[in-house]
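Example 9 (inverse folding). The structure is encoded as follows.
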């Protein structure tokens, strides 16, 4: 049985408690490994190693040397592409066709992109007039923040983890990563790549376990951690923020969403259908940026719903490694029970089930996996829980609207503010509506088109701070001003 151990100070190790838990493949429900659960002792060892690394050779490296090492890490992932792909797909059940295009290549690219960002970053300077006429020069420099705790979710394990580890290391910090208990594999494997690339010991550490009263809480409560970057549920973010209050540690949060997709009658309907099928169903709906609320202008409502239904019913559920598969299972049986409870709730709340709404018949060993049908509803009120709460499954509610003001109000009527998609061929309307939407990211006539230099993050309860390109540097460094009197 495969063992997923902690990676501390460049070495794999077990927990002293000997505690382990099962790693289950969601496609088949079978146990594929044992994950070692960290106690306070292992977390403390990882934070101590990370602290020591800051004053070792890692702290002495110049930006170019550091960036060269990060390029080697990216190459190391790409050299072992298939291993990462198999590990990620076994943990999540996601199709190879998806992970080979997004998770693994983007996971590797994060190291190069942030190395390039830090290499090309500029420091501001200010000339200051003084009464003696001599003046002063102020200039700002960036220094590493220190030991960064990186707490990750299960939906895009490698990609979202390296999205944080890449900039953290590029800026000269050290990290302790707590991957999701559901998806321990790629963070563990990355330890080998770090060693092969020559990243000094203690710079990259991994501790496994759960959240409360386990590795997640022990890490975020640890006084040796200087800042915490977290992606996951809003409620977890609240708990981590409480922990971060002790010692006034900085946080960067990417949290939940209940994202709207807005389709105007003047859109290119084929593009809107294709994009909405992706935004609703990609990764089995387990994408924080995914669309769970569709608003469609009345003249095209019926046609839109009918074509979205056709697209949903054409999705191919199947084995991750089958090239024809484009819809995987949910990440776990626990998550499936949550999603199925919303499927039942939708009916109780009076929804019309356009398609799906249940569990598909899967053959052979897949029948024990965490599968659900792609699901579309209409007919719910704006206060229905299914329309207001994040479900994180392959499902959406579609509602008709009449005019722009109405749909902007509907889209913004949520505690979340992560992402939105707007479909229209009217360029003025596109800009006008995008500016009025309360969302950290708005796509017009596209979805998940990411330029990694752009600011990424959520408004309202969807997050704190922005990461991406130079915006990441604001979190992963301390900016110091130096004032020189001439
Ligand atoms: P989660 O909040 O349950 O868990 C995320 C991580 O936090 C896990 O590693 C978990 O062990 C840890 N954790 C849980 N409780 C903790 C605690 N009290 N202290 C410290 N750590 C704790 O989230 P999830 O179910 O893994 O991921 C799905 C959620 O993530 C969804 O809400 C989704 O919208 C969100 N998400 C957001 C983004 C974004 O960029 N905004 C991206 C991906 C996922």
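The amino acid assigned to each position is listed next.
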């Amino acid at each position: 049985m495969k063992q997923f151990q902690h990676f501390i100070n460049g070495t794999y190790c077990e927990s002293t408690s000997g505690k382990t838990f099962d790693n289950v493949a969601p496609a088949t429900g079978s146990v594929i490994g044992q994950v070692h659960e960290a106690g306070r002792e292992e977390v403390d060892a990882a934070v101590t190693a990370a602290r020591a690394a800051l004053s070792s050779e890692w702290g002495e490296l110049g930006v170019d040397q550091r960036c060269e090492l990060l390029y080697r890490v990216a190459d190391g992932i790409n050299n072992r592409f298939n291993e990462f792909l198999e590990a990620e797909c076994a943990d999540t059940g996601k199709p190879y066709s998806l992970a080979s295009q997004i998770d693994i290549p983007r996971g590797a690219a994060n190291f190069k992109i942030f190395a390039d960002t830090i290499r090309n970053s500029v420091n501001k300077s200010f000339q200051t007039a003084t009464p003696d006429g001599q003046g002063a020069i102020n200039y700002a420099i960036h220094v590493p923040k220190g030991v960064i705790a990186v707490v990750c979710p299960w939906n895009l394990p490698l990609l979202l983890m390296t999205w944080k580890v890449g900039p953290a290391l590029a800026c000269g910090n050290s990290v302790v990563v707590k991957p999701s208990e559901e998806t321990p594999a790629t963070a563990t494997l990355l330890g080998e790549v770090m060693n092969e690339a020559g990243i000094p010991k203690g710079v990259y550490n991994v501790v496994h376990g759960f959240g409360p009263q386990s590795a997640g809480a022990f890490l975020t409560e640890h006084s040796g951690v200087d800042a915490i970057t977290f992606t996951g549920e809003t409620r977890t973010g609240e708990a981590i923020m409480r922990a971060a209050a002790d010692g006034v540690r900085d946080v960067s949060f990417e949290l939940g969403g209940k994202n709207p997709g807005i389709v105007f009658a003047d859109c290119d309907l084929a593009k809107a259908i294709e994009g909405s099928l992706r935004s609703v169903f990609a990764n089995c709906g387990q994408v924080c940026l995914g669309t769970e609320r569709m608003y469609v202008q009345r003249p095209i409502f019926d046609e839109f719903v009918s074509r979205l239904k056709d697209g949903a019913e054409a999705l191919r559920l199947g084995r991750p490694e089958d090239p024809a598969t484009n819809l995987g299972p949910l990440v776990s049986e626990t998550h499936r029970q949550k999603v199925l409870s919303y499927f039942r709730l939708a009916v109780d709340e009076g929804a019309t089930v356009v398609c799906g709404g249940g569990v598909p018949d899967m053959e052979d060993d897949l029948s024990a996996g965490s599968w659900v049908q792609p699901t579309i509803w209409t007919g719910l009120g704006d206060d229905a829980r299914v329309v207001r709460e994040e479900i994180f499954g392959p499902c959406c509610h579609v509602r008709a609207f009449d005019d722009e003001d109405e749909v902007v109000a509907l889209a913004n009527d949520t505690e979340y503010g992560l992402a939105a998609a707007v479909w229209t061929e009217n360029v003025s309307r596109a800009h006008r509506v995008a500016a009025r939407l309360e969302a950290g990211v708005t796509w017009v006539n596209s979805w998940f088109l990411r330029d990694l230099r752009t600011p990424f993050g959520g408004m309202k309860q969807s997050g704190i701070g922005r990461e991406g390109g130079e915006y990441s540097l604001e979190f992963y460094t301390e900016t110091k001003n130096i004032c020189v009197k001439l």
